[in-house]
Write a structure and sequence with these properties.
Helix content is 29%, strand content 34%. A seven-stranded mixed beta sheet has the order 1-2-3-4-5-7-6, with helices on both faces. Strand 4, helix 4 and strand 5 form a beta-alpha-beta unit. Helix 1 crosses helix 3. The protein is globular and about 35 Å long. It starts with a strand and ends in a 16-residue tail after the last strand.
Length: 178
Amino acid sequence: MSVIIRRLGPADGDDYRTIRLAALATAPDAFGSTYAAEVVRPAAAFAERLSQAAVFGAHRDGQIVGMAGYRRHDGLKDKHKGSVWGVYVQPQWRGQGIAGALMQAVIGAARGEVEQLLLAVVQGNDDALALYRRLGFEIYGVEPRALKTGNGYVDEALMIRFLGGDEEGSTTSGTPSL
């Protein structure tokens, strides 16, 4: 059977909760939240999150098997940027192109809304780094000790993909920024 990628809406709150909790339980060091913090949230909180961001789900055989989210920044000077978050595919479905399809959906949703996408990925997650590079993301820095987990600190690679607009980083005066 094929995998169906679609944007999740508030009515998909139960599916989103299921995959979000699976992600936090399976890869606790990869996300900024924890299973313990999220499992006590009411179902309405998951539905609300879906109304505030573009979250895509991958469904196979009627079950959600992956997710990826994107949210546009809303500040006056940073609304040209969006952040990718929560990219996850259940282990038994990895290696089948699902994460790539989810990310293509995110990139498609962001194109025309923002000029650049940002994401952070835990150092050592080589499969994710390779995927993001294939999709045109580039590392622009590393945040040391970005997350503190039960196993200690983890660094995150900071990545960017330009989607359009001023990709050279110039200021309004036309002088390249430093």
